[in-house]
Specification:
2 helices; alpha+beta
Length: 127
């Protein structure tokens, strides 16, 4: 049986910004609320409220975010899959960010209502 997750919507619209791997972490990225900064050998990605991201920065905007209400044990399986499966099976694009304490789901704002419907139909609770 798939996990049943409680999801809390985070206020605001978010952007996913892409910088060069060698770039420093920009000051505009920091601030209250949900922020995720990830560096790889290929890029520096920043997820934050889109009004913080300068217009000249490569970005994809108009995402809404949901926080998985945990906590979940590191070894607990199927948590993320249970949430992304109904969205993916219905053709919605997603972006997932995991942290030490939990997971965050982002969907395009244009898909927000459909995502909420598919998540509820799959047995998840939207707070």
């Amino acid at each position: 049986m798939a996990a049943r997750i409680r999801l809390k919507q985070i206020p605001g619209l978010f952007a996913i910004a892409r910088l060069e791997a060698r770039d420093g972490i920009p000051g505009w990225a920091d601030g209250p609320g949900f922020v995720s900064i990830t560096r790889t050998d290929d890029e520096l990605s920043v997820v934050c409220l889109q009004d913080r991201v300068p217009n000249d920065v490569r970005q994809d905007g108009d995402w809404v975010a949901f926080k998985f209400e945990g906590p979940f044990a590191f070894g607990q399986s199927g948590i993320v899959l249970s949430v992304i499966r109904p969205l993916s099976e219905n053709g919605l694009g997603i972006f997932v960010v995991s942290t030490f304490d939990g997971d965050h789901l982002l969907v395009k704002a244009v898909d927000e209502e459909a995502a909420k419907r598919f998540l509820a139909e799959a047995g998840h609770t939207l707070l």
